Amino acid sequence: MTKFSLIQLNTGCDPKKSFEVLKKYITEAAYSGSKFVCTPETTNIMEVRNSLLFKKIYTEKEDIYLKKILGLAKNLKIWINLGSWILKDKKNKAVNRTILINPEGFIHARYDKIHLFDVEISEKEKYLESKTYSSGNKAVVTDTPFGSLGLSICYDLRFPYLYRDLATNGAEIIFVPSAFTYETGKVHWHSLLTARAIETGSYVIAAAQKGTHENKRRTYGHSLVIDPWGKIIAEKKNGIGLMDFDIDLKRVKNARSKIPSIYANKKYKIIRN
Question: Which residues pair with 220 in a beta bridge?
Fold first, then answer.
């Protein structure tokens, strides 16, 4: 088994402060023996005002705080999955990107959020991510010493076909870094994550944002790790900080051999009667 760590955050509007918090917890995790650290969606900034957001973010090549994280991974000899890092892209929009960093301090894989959060939860709570962000168009599975990892971000969770595709293409551990709203989190968070783990026979790791943020947005928290049988093996219910857990890939093989549903071919067609 391999020791992983997850960081639950309450990210604000200042990337410099975000980096200092990350540095503290990543270093603590590495010194405790963790080989892999993962973080939530919007790890570096949660700024909803576009006029200010674009003054505080960079392209991937120019991002000074991302460079510091790369150096930290190299110095600590640790893998880091930045659940999502907000960057400028080439279209004068932002991009919501997972960045997986290896212990040599290089970017091992990238994933841009495919399903953007365009919803109206209530008259007072509305989101239109497509106004600010470019969407990705590539699902990502990447091999590591810890197994094959499938990458996703937050709202992707509501689209089960993505997770089946990740699993059928070899993903054994699937990440769902999130900044789930408090209202939807109360009713859907645990159920959706558990379903994705059971459906795919995979570990699901969901680092989350928690609490009322500087921008007044409220997120649900409850970072979760769920095994391939749908059992919650770790949950951080309160506060920010680290949560440690172990991964045993034998459980993936066991679940998929006993219930091989992801390997089944489609054997039907739809008829509207």
Answer: 210
pLDDT digits (tens, 9 = 90+) for 235-254: 999 999 999 999 999 999 99
Q: How far apart are CA 43 and CA 58, in angstroms?
A: 14
Q: What is the pTM of this model?
A: 0.95
* 3-class secondary-structure state, position 236: strand
Whether the Cβ atoms of residue 230 and residue 251 lie closer than 8 Å to each other: no
Just list the catalytic residues.
41, 113, 154
CA distance 61 to 81: 18
CATH number of the structural domain spanning residue 241: 3.60.110.10
Burial of 68 (0-12, 13-18, 19+ CB in 10 A): middle
Q: Which amino acid is at 86?
A: I
pLDDT in tens, 110-131: 999 999 988 777 777 777 899 9
The alpha-helical segments, DSSP class H, found in 36-181 are: 50-56, 64-76, 160-168
The total number of structural domains that make up the chain? 1
Domain limits at 193? 2-257
Q: Where are the alpha helices (DSSP H) in the chain?
A: 15-31, 50-56, 64-76, 160-168, 182-200, 250-258
Cβ atoms within 10 Å of 195's Cβ, excluding its own: 17
Q: Is 265 contained in some domain?
A: no
Q: Is 7:206 a contact under the CB 8 Å cutoff?
A: no
* Residue 78: inside a domain: yes
